[in-house]
Amino acid sequence: MQPSPGGIESFTLTFPGTAFDEAELARLAAKRFRTKHTEVPLSGASLVARLDEALGALDQPTMDGINTYFVSWAAKQVGLKVALSGLGGDELFAAIKLLRILRASRD
Fold it and tell me: Pairing with 85, which of 12, 27, 49, 78 sits 20 to 30 Å away (CA)?
C-alpha cells in the first residue's frame, strides 16, 4: 500500500448557525495535522432531501450512521475509495456529557 501522493484529506460535517457546529474545531485539527480539509455543510433541508438514500445505505441500526453516510459521500466526491472514521472518538475526547443526555432522553 502506498501513501496518498496528495497527503491526508480530512472531512467534517458542518451545521451552520447551530450551537453544535464543530467546524472551527475541525479546522484547527486540520491545520494542526496539515490535512487537505473539506467541510460539508448539512442543513435540515439537505438532510431530509437525501434521508431515504442515507437510510437505504445502512446495514444495521446506528447512532452515527447518518453523519457517517454524509462524510463518506463527500469523500467519494473527491475520488477517495477508502476512509477511516473517527467513530468512537467522542468517548476519548470528553463527549460523555452528550452520551448521558442521549441516554436520559430515552427514558
Answer: 49
